[in-house]
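User: Hey, quick favor. My workstation is busy. Could you predict this chain's structure for me?
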Amino acid sequence: MKIIANQLSKRFNREWIFRNFTYEFVTGKTYALVGPNGSGKSTLLQVLFGQMPPSKGTVLYSNEKNRILDAEVYQHISIATPYMELIDEFTLEEMVSFHFSFKSVREKATLAEVIEKMELQDARKKVISNFSSGMRQRLKLALAFFSQSEVFFLDEPTTNLDAKSIDWYWKNLTPILDKSIIIIASNQATEYPQTAENIDILNYK
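Assistant: No problem, here it is.
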């Protein structure tokens, strides 16, 4: 799997958020989008995974020299971001069941096994609107980690996580590092591996 960004630029009104971003992302590598708060890391991430169109430039996904159509990219990616919505009216079981009606489960785990891997078994009947911010973040990450995907986009992944949950994050991130493209937007070095390739968004202003 490859993602090729060519001369990507994004502008809101007259302000350029980033300009002329050209990069190639390949399987087996982790990339850290770094820069201060408000510098445009999340915007670049959204352009890369297709939530937001670029003002200029292109993003191409390919697999073994075959281009993946834009309408099919979602089948290959998983996303966990602070702005990603959950369905508050669902219980945890209902949310997991709904999500995996669209995505395949990694390693063919059952939904019960997925909830066990989340370490949220006691909350399986709990309505998501009653989840703490940390529980919501763990759920978002788990839906990404346990989906059969080739690319993972993580935006400030340890937001609202306590020390135990951060350990859980690393426990579940580590096994997919050499099998996937991992792109993490963060200004904290504790959120991505030391081996990650750093991309400073300030170089594209």
